[in-house]
Every structure is written in C-alpha cells, then in structure tokens.
Amino acid sequence: FVVLSLDVGAEAKLGRELLDAAVQVHPDGSFFIFSVDADRTKTAGFAQVSAKHHAAKGLDAKSWVNTAMASLGGKGGGKDPLTATGQAKTVQGLDDAIAAAKAFVH
Questions:
Q1: Could you report the per-residue pLDDT of 11-21, keeping only the tens digit for each?
Q2: pTM for the whole thing?
Q3: In which domain, by residue range, is 61 found?
C-alpha cells in the first residue's frame, strides 16, 4: 500500500494519470494519492485498489477515499470498487487525512 501527497493541483485528469503510472510499475499495489492545490485551497484524493487487495482484504476504493477525505470535510465517490476520487475545499487537516488513509489499510 502506498499513500502519498503531492502539491500538483487538484485536477482529476492528473490524478488518474499518476495512478495509471503507479499501477504500471506495481500492478498488484494499491495506491492513494492526495493532490493539493494550495492556491485554490482544494485537496483531491485518488485511490486505486488492486484486484488482489480487493479479493483478499475486501479493500474498497470508495470507502478508502471517504474515510480519508472526511478529515478534510470532503467526500468521494466511485462506481467501481477498485477506483474512486474525492475532493475537499480545504488543505487544512491534510496530515490527519494522510494518517486516516494509512490507518484504513493497516
């Protein structure tokens, strides 16, 4: 499991591209990327759960995103249990959100 934060804006397209690149390097990995746009005071969250982690541990991307984004007053969604995105209208509480994302998978 990899959870990280980048200061590269809160654009969904970029988040998807980052997850796609991570999955290419480690196909069995599950990833959560926080992307911060401090200028617009927004935080986005992007989760990709591997089929392996979904089957073995019941890990669900939407639940993972909602748990993490709650610390920021945000929420997420996704129709597929393997991918989800979320947004919050703040960057305050990012450390708590990262801790929540890590705790969810450990």
A1: 777 878 888 88
A2: 0.87
A3: 2-105
